[in-house]
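Appendix B, record 7
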Amino acid sequence: MRILFITGNYPSAAFPANGAFVRQLVWAVARQGHDCSVISPVRQLLRRFGPLPPLVSQESAGAGVGVQVLRPRYHSAGSKKIGFIHTGRFTQFAFEHAVIKSLSDLGNRPDVCYGHFLYPGGSGAAVAARHFGVPAFAAVGEGTFWTIEPFGAPRAQRHLAPVSGFVAVSSVISGMLREQLQIPDEKIGVFPNGVDLCRFHPRPREEMCRKHGLCPDAFHISFVGNFDELKGVARLAEAVRNLKGVRLILIGKGPVKVASPVIVFKGPVAHEVVPELLCASDLFVLPTAEEGSCNAVIEAMACGLPVVTSNGNYMDDLVNDQVALRVNPLDVAEIRRGILTLMNEPARRHALAARALEHSRKYDINLRAKKILNWIQQRMDYPSPIVSSHASQAH
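C-alpha coordinates (predicted):
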Protein backbone atom coordinates (compact mmCIF):
# COMPACT_ATOMS: atom_id res chain seq x y z
CA MET A 1 0.00 0.00 0.00
CA ARG A 2 0.90 3.64 -0.33
CA ILE A 3 0.33 5.24 3.04
CA LEU A 4 0.30 8.97 3.78
CA PHE A 5 0.96 9.82 7.43
CA ILE A 6 -0.20 13.22 8.70
CA THR A 7 1.07 14.50 12.03
CA GLY A 8 1.81 17.71 13.86
CA ASN A 9 4.49 15.95 15.89
CA TYR A 10 7.56 14.68 14.04
CA PRO A 11 11.29 14.88 14.85
CA SER A 12 13.52 17.57 13.40
CA ALA A 13 17.09 18.73 14.03
CA ALA A 14 15.86 21.40 16.44
CA PHE A 15 13.44 19.05 18.22
CA PRO A 16 14.89 15.54 17.88
CA ALA A 17 12.67 13.97 20.53
CA ASN A 18 9.34 15.39 19.32
CA GLY A 19 7.24 12.63 17.85
CA ALA A 20 10.05 10.07 17.86
CA PHE A 21 7.44 7.36 18.44
CA VAL A 22 5.56 8.49 15.31
CA ARG A 23 8.70 8.21 13.22
CA GLN A 24 9.43 4.75 14.60
CA LEU A 25 6.01 3.52 13.46
CA VAL A 26 6.38 5.14 10.02
CA TRP A 27 9.75 3.48 9.57
CA ALA A 28 8.44 0.11 10.77
CA VAL A 29 5.55 0.29 8.29
CA ALA A 30 7.95 1.24 5.49
CA ARG A 31 10.14 -1.77 6.33
CA GLN A 32 7.08 -3.98 5.78
CA GLY A 33 7.35 -3.04 2.09
CA HIS A 34 4.81 -0.20 2.00
CA ASP A 35 5.41 3.15 0.27
CA CYS A 36 5.27 5.72 3.09
CA SER A 37 5.18 9.51 3.01
CA VAL A 38 4.75 12.00 5.84
CA ILE A 39 3.19 15.46 5.87
CA SER A 40 4.09 17.28 9.08
CA PRO A 41 3.22 20.99 8.89
CA VAL A 42 5.61 23.24 10.81
CA ARG A 43 4.57 26.34 12.72
CA GLN A 44 6.26 29.51 11.46
CA LEU A 45 6.74 30.64 15.08
CA LEU A 46 9.33 27.90 15.58
CA ARG A 47 11.80 30.10 13.69
CA ARG A 48 12.68 31.66 17.03
CA PHE A 49 14.35 28.38 18.01
CA GLY A 50 16.51 28.26 14.89
CA PRO A 51 16.22 27.37 11.21
CA LEU A 52 13.11 25.45 10.23
CA PRO A 53 13.54 21.95 8.77
CA PRO A 54 13.63 21.59 4.97
CA LEU A 55 10.34 21.62 3.09
CA VAL A 56 11.10 18.22 1.58
CA SER A 57 13.50 15.57 2.80
CA GLN A 58 14.20 11.85 2.55
CA GLU A 59 14.77 9.62 5.58
CA SER A 60 16.24 6.15 5.75
CA ALA A 61 13.95 3.71 7.52
CA GLY A 62 16.59 0.98 7.40
CA ALA A 63 16.82 -2.10 5.18
CA GLY A 64 17.40 0.19 2.19
CA VAL A 65 13.95 1.77 2.52
CA GLY A 66 13.31 5.52 2.27
CA VAL A 67 10.50 7.76 3.54
CA GLN A 68 9.58 11.13 2.02
CA VAL A 69 8.82 13.89 4.55
CA LEU A 70 7.01 17.11 3.58
CA ARG A 71 7.01 19.98 6.07
CA PRO A 72 4.83 22.83 4.80
CA ARG A 73 4.68 26.00 6.89
CA TYR A 74 1.61 27.39 8.62
CA HIS A 75 0.72 30.18 11.03
CA SER A 76 -0.54 28.96 14.39
CA ALA A 77 -3.04 30.95 16.42
CA GLY A 78 -2.35 28.83 19.49
CA SER A 79 -5.12 27.10 21.38
CA LYS A 80 -6.83 29.46 23.79
CA LYS A 81 -10.43 30.35 24.53
CA ILE A 82 -11.14 34.08 24.17
CA GLY A 83 -14.75 34.83 24.94
CA PHE A 84 -16.87 32.66 22.67
CA ILE A 85 -13.95 32.02 20.30
CA HIS A 86 -11.34 29.29 20.60
CA THR A 87 -8.15 30.05 18.65
CA GLY A 88 -7.48 26.32 18.28
CA ARG A 89 -10.11 26.26 15.50
CA PHE A 90 -8.09 28.72 13.41
CA THR A 91 -4.90 26.80 14.11
CA GLN A 92 -6.52 23.57 12.92
CA PHE A 93 -7.82 25.28 9.78
CA ALA A 94 -4.31 26.59 9.00
CA PHE A 95 -2.82 23.14 9.64
CA GLU A 96 -5.30 21.47 7.27
CA HIS A 97 -4.76 24.17 4.63
CA ALA A 98 -1.01 23.43 4.76
CA VAL A 99 -1.75 19.72 4.34
CA ILE A 100 -3.99 20.35 1.32
CA LYS A 101 -1.34 22.54 -0.34
CA SER A 102 1.20 19.72 0.04
CA LEU A 103 -0.94 16.98 -1.48
CA SER A 104 0.07 17.92 -5.01
CA ASP A 105 3.73 17.41 -4.05
CA LEU A 106 3.23 13.72 -3.32
CA GLY A 107 4.69 11.46 -5.95
CA ASN A 108 1.71 9.11 -6.01
CA ARG A 109 -1.88 8.97 -4.82
CA PRO A 110 -2.00 7.19 -1.44
CA ASP A 111 -4.21 4.20 -0.76
CA VAL A 112 -4.84 5.32 2.80
CA CYS A 113 -4.30 8.39 5.00
CA TYR A 114 -3.21 7.87 8.60
CA GLY A 115 -3.32 10.77 11.08
CA HIS A 116 -1.62 10.91 14.45
CA PHE A 117 -3.85 12.09 17.30
CA LEU A 118 -7.45 13.18 16.84
CA TYR A 119 -6.25 16.74 16.21
CA PRO A 120 -4.47 17.93 14.26
CA GLY A 121 -3.50 14.70 12.47
CA GLY A 122 -6.72 12.69 12.56
CA SER A 123 -8.89 15.49 11.26
CA GLY A 124 -6.14 16.39 8.76
CA ALA A 125 -6.11 12.78 7.54
CA ALA A 126 -9.88 12.92 7.02
CA VAL A 127 -9.44 16.02 4.84
CA ALA A 128 -6.62 14.46 2.81
CA ALA A 129 -8.52 11.19 2.43
CA ARG A 130 -11.54 13.06 1.08
CA HIS A 131 -9.28 14.81 -1.44
CA PHE A 132 -8.06 11.46 -2.77
CA GLY A 133 -11.25 9.47 -2.19
CA VAL A 134 -9.47 6.94 0.04
CA PRO A 135 -10.02 5.69 3.62
CA ALA A 136 -8.72 7.63 6.63
CA PHE A 137 -7.45 6.26 9.93
CA ALA A 138 -6.55 8.06 13.15
CA ALA A 139 -4.11 7.02 15.86
CA VAL A 140 -5.38 8.07 19.29
CA GLY A 141 -2.83 8.38 22.07
CA GLU A 142 -4.12 11.32 24.10
CA GLY A 143 -4.43 10.40 27.78
CA THR A 144 -7.30 12.87 27.86
CA PHE A 145 -9.08 14.25 24.81
CA TRP A 146 -7.71 17.74 25.28
CA THR A 147 -7.18 18.12 21.53
CA ILE A 148 -10.94 18.26 20.92
CA GLU A 149 -11.48 21.13 23.38
CA PRO A 150 -11.45 23.88 20.69
CA PHE A 151 -14.33 22.15 18.89
CA GLY A 152 -16.34 20.28 21.50
CA ALA A 153 -17.43 16.65 21.21
CA PRO A 154 -20.40 17.15 18.80
CA ARG A 155 -18.32 19.07 16.23
CA ALA A 156 -15.40 16.63 16.66
CA GLN A 157 -17.76 13.75 15.92
CA ARG A 158 -18.71 15.41 12.63
CA HIS A 159 -15.08 16.13 11.71
CA LEU A 160 -14.05 12.54 12.42
CA ALA A 161 -17.11 10.84 10.91
CA PRO A 162 -15.25 9.94 7.67
CA VAL A 163 -12.52 8.10 9.60
CA SER A 164 -12.70 4.37 8.87
CA GLY A 165 -10.84 3.27 11.98
CA PHE A 166 -9.28 4.53 15.20
CA VAL A 167 -6.04 3.01 16.45
CA ALA A 168 -6.31 3.33 20.23
CA VAL A 169 -3.06 2.82 22.13
CA SER A 170 -4.78 1.50 25.26
CA SER A 171 -7.96 -0.12 26.51
CA VAL A 172 -8.68 3.03 28.51
CA ILE A 173 -8.59 5.19 25.37
CA SER A 174 -10.76 2.66 23.57
CA GLY A 175 -13.40 3.22 26.25
CA MET A 176 -13.02 6.99 25.98
CA LEU A 177 -13.64 6.85 22.22
CA ARG A 178 -16.86 4.95 22.82
CA GLU A 179 -18.08 7.05 25.72
CA GLN A 180 -17.02 10.57 24.75
CA LEU A 181 -17.22 10.44 20.94
CA GLN A 182 -19.69 7.55 20.45
CA ILE A 183 -17.28 5.72 18.15
CA PRO A 184 -18.68 2.23 17.45
CA ASP A 185 -16.67 -0.79 18.61
CA GLU A 186 -16.03 -2.05 15.11
CA LYS A 187 -14.14 1.15 14.27
CA ILE A 188 -11.73 0.80 17.21
CA GLY A 189 -8.60 -1.33 17.35
CA VAL A 190 -6.39 -1.44 20.46
CA PHE A 191 -2.64 -1.55 19.75
CA PRO A 192 -0.32 -0.44 22.59
CA ASN A 193 2.78 1.44 21.53
CA GLY A 194 5.91 -0.41 20.49
CA VAL A 195 9.68 -0.10 20.62
CA ASP A 196 12.41 -0.72 18.07
CA LEU A 197 14.24 -3.63 19.71
CA CYS A 198 17.19 -3.11 17.38
CA ARG A 199 17.74 0.27 19.06
CA PHE A 200 16.52 -0.44 22.58
CA HIS A 201 18.34 -3.41 24.05
CA PRO A 202 20.71 -4.04 26.99
CA ARG A 203 24.22 -2.62 26.75
CA PRO A 204 27.14 -2.90 29.22
CA ARG A 205 26.38 -0.52 32.07
CA GLU A 206 29.94 0.53 32.86
CA GLU A 207 30.70 1.16 29.20
CA MET A 208 27.66 3.44 28.89
CA CYS A 209 28.61 5.25 32.10
CA ARG A 210 32.11 5.95 30.79
CA LYS A 211 30.75 7.06 27.39
CA HIS A 212 28.53 9.69 29.03
CA GLY A 213 30.89 10.74 31.82
CA LEU A 214 28.91 9.11 34.62
CA CYS A 215 30.35 7.46 37.72
CA PRO A 216 29.76 3.68 37.54
CA ASP A 217 29.88 3.44 41.35
CA ALA A 218 26.72 5.55 41.79
CA PHE A 219 23.17 4.14 41.78
CA HIS A 220 21.66 5.81 38.72
CA ILE A 221 17.91 6.33 38.43
CA SER A 222 16.67 7.43 35.02
CA PHE A 223 13.53 9.29 33.98
CA VAL A 224 12.32 9.98 30.42
CA GLY A 225 9.46 12.34 29.67
CA ASN A 226 8.20 15.89 29.69
CA PHE A 227 9.19 17.91 32.73
CA ASP A 228 5.63 18.63 33.84
CA GLU A 229 3.36 17.93 36.77
CA LEU A 230 1.71 14.91 35.18
CA LYS A 231 4.93 13.02 34.44
CA GLY A 232 6.16 13.62 37.98
CA VAL A 233 9.80 14.65 37.52
CA ALA A 234 9.63 16.93 40.58
CA ARG A 235 8.05 14.14 42.66
CA LEU A 236 10.92 11.85 41.69
CA ALA A 237 13.52 14.46 42.68
CA GLU A 238 11.79 14.89 46.03
CA ALA A 239 11.54 11.12 46.55
CA VAL A 240 15.31 10.60 46.27
CA ARG A 241 16.30 13.51 48.47
CA ASN A 242 19.14 12.46 50.82
CA LEU A 243 19.24 8.89 49.50
CA LYS A 244 22.90 7.94 49.77
CA GLY A 245 24.63 7.10 46.52
CA VAL A 246 21.66 7.94 44.26
CA ARG A 247 22.14 9.99 41.10
CA LEU A 248 19.45 11.11 38.66
CA ILE A 249 19.48 10.97 34.86
CA LEU A 250 16.58 13.14 33.68
CA ILE A 251 15.94 12.95 29.94
CA GLY A 252 13.50 15.51 28.58
CA LYS A 253 12.45 19.11 29.03
CA GLY A 254 9.41 21.11 30.06
CA PRO A 255 7.96 23.86 32.22
CA VAL A 256 8.79 22.30 35.60
CA LYS A 257 12.17 23.54 36.78
CA VAL A 258 13.79 20.74 38.73
CA ALA A 259 17.10 21.21 40.53
CA SER A 260 18.99 18.84 42.82
CA PRO A 261 22.64 18.17 43.61
CA VAL A 262 22.10 14.51 42.69
CA ILE A 263 21.19 15.29 39.06
CA VAL A 264 24.09 14.18 36.85
CA PHE A 265 22.30 14.58 33.52
CA LYS A 266 19.32 16.74 32.57
CA GLY A 267 17.93 17.69 29.19
CA PRO A 268 16.61 16.41 25.84
CA VAL A 269 18.69 14.11 23.66
CA ALA A 270 18.37 12.56 20.24
CA HIS A 271 16.32 9.37 20.25
CA GLU A 272 19.33 7.17 19.55
CA VAL A 273 21.06 8.44 22.73
CA VAL A 274 18.15 7.50 25.01
CA PRO A 275 18.96 3.75 25.17
CA GLU A 276 22.59 4.52 26.02
CA LEU A 277 21.59 6.64 29.02
CA LEU A 278 19.00 4.07 30.08
CA CYS A 279 21.65 1.37 30.00
CA ALA A 280 23.89 3.51 32.23
CA SER A 281 21.12 3.28 34.84
CA ASP A 282 20.24 0.84 37.60
CA LEU A 283 16.56 1.70 37.83
CA PHE A 284 13.91 3.51 35.80
CA VAL A 285 11.26 5.55 37.64
CA LEU A 286 8.29 7.28 36.02
CA PRO A 287 5.60 8.42 38.50
CA THR A 288 3.24 9.54 35.75
CA ALA A 289 -0.31 10.54 36.62
CA GLU A 290 -1.68 10.19 33.08
CA GLU A 291 -0.70 8.30 29.94
CA GLY A 292 -1.91 7.11 26.59
CA SER A 293 0.58 4.27 26.14
CA CYS A 294 3.93 5.03 27.71
CA ASN A 295 6.81 4.58 25.27
CA ALA A 296 9.36 5.45 27.95
CA VAL A 297 8.40 2.50 30.15
CA ILE A 298 8.50 0.07 27.21
CA GLU A 299 11.92 1.41 26.19
CA ALA A 300 13.27 1.04 29.73
CA MET A 301 12.07 -2.56 29.95
CA ALA A 302 13.62 -3.31 26.55
CA CYS A 303 16.95 -2.03 27.88
CA GLY A 304 16.70 -4.52 30.74
CA LEU A 305 15.88 -2.04 33.50
CA PRO A 306 13.72 -2.70 36.55
CA VAL A 307 10.85 -0.22 36.59
CA VAL A 308 8.97 1.74 39.24
CA THR A 309 5.86 3.32 37.76
CA SER A 310 2.23 4.14 38.33
CA ASN A 311 -0.58 1.91 39.55
CA GLY A 312 -3.18 3.74 37.41
CA ASN A 313 -5.29 1.72 34.97
CA TYR A 314 -3.72 3.66 32.09
CA MET A 315 -0.61 1.49 32.62
CA ASP A 316 -2.42 -1.87 32.71
CA ASP A 317 -1.89 -2.67 29.02
CA LEU A 318 1.89 -2.37 29.46
CA VAL A 319 2.89 -3.59 32.91
CA ASN A 320 1.80 -5.83 35.76
CA ASP A 321 3.19 -6.64 39.18
CA GLN A 322 5.48 -9.29 37.70
CA VAL A 323 7.42 -6.83 35.55
CA ALA A 324 7.21 -3.53 37.46
CA LEU A 325 6.85 -2.19 40.97
CA ARG A 326 3.74 -0.02 40.84
CA VAL A 327 3.07 2.87 43.19
CA ASN A 328 0.70 5.79 43.69
CA PRO A 329 2.33 8.36 41.37
CA LEU A 330 1.14 11.30 43.49
CA ASP A 331 2.51 9.95 46.79
CA VAL A 332 6.16 10.96 47.16
CA ALA A 333 6.62 8.75 50.23
CA GLU A 334 5.33 5.71 48.32
CA ILE A 335 7.61 6.48 45.37
CA ARG A 336 10.54 6.68 47.78
CA ARG A 337 9.61 3.36 49.40
CA GLY A 338 9.46 1.71 45.98
CA ILE A 339 12.92 3.02 45.10
CA LEU A 340 14.37 1.93 48.44
CA THR A 341 12.82 -1.54 48.10
CA LEU A 342 14.62 -2.19 44.84
CA MET A 343 17.84 -0.49 45.96
CA ASN A 344 18.03 -2.66 49.07
CA GLU A 345 16.95 -5.93 47.43
CA PRO A 346 19.30 -6.50 44.49
CA ALA A 347 18.04 -10.04 43.87
CA ARG A 348 14.48 -8.76 43.50
CA ARG A 349 15.70 -5.89 41.33
CA HIS A 350 17.55 -8.22 38.96
CA ALA A 351 14.63 -10.66 38.77
CA LEU A 352 12.24 -7.80 37.97
CA ALA A 353 14.61 -6.55 35.27
CA ALA A 354 14.85 -9.99 33.66
CA ARG A 355 11.08 -10.38 33.54
CA ALA A 356 10.68 -6.83 32.19
CA LEU A 357 13.16 -7.52 29.41
CA GLU A 358 11.28 -10.64 28.35
CA HIS A 359 7.94 -8.82 28.63
CA SER A 360 9.17 -5.99 26.38
CA ARG A 361 9.42 -8.37 23.41
CA LYS A 362 5.62 -8.27 23.16
CA TYR A 363 5.94 -4.62 22.17
CA ASP A 364 8.25 -4.96 19.15
CA ILE A 365 7.44 -2.00 16.87
CA ASN A 366 7.65 -4.25 13.80
CA LEU A 367 5.06 -6.62 15.26
CA ARG A 368 2.85 -3.65 16.14
CA ALA A 369 3.14 -2.31 12.59
CA LYS A 370 2.08 -5.67 11.15
CA LYS A 371 -0.94 -5.88 13.45
CA ILE A 372 -2.05 -2.34 12.63
CA LEU A 373 -1.62 -2.91 8.89
CA ASN A 374 -3.62 -6.14 9.02
CA TRP A 375 -6.41 -4.39 10.89
CA ILE A 376 -6.38 -1.45 8.46
CA GLN A 377 -6.69 -3.86 5.56
CA GLN A 378 -9.70 -5.48 7.22
CA ARG A 379 -11.32 -2.10 7.83
CA MET A 380 -10.69 -1.00 4.25
CA ASP A 381 -13.06 -3.71 3.16
CA TYR A 382 -15.77 -1.72 4.99
CA PRO A 383 -14.79 1.93 4.43
CA SER A 384 -16.76 4.78 5.92
CA PRO A 385 -18.38 7.15 3.43
CA ILE A 386 -16.40 10.25 2.56
CA VAL A 387 -18.54 13.13 3.75
CA SER A 388 -18.56 16.75 2.71
CA SER A 389 -15.60 18.92 3.60
CA HIS A 390 -15.42 20.63 6.93
CA ALA A 391 -12.18 22.41 6.03
CA SER A 392 -14.21 25.24 4.59
CA GLN A 393 -16.65 25.28 7.50
CA ALA A 394 -16.21 27.44 10.59
CA HIS A 395 -14.20 25.26 12.97
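Remarks on this record: Residues 117-132 form the longest helix (16 residues). The two ends are 32 Å apart (CA to CA).
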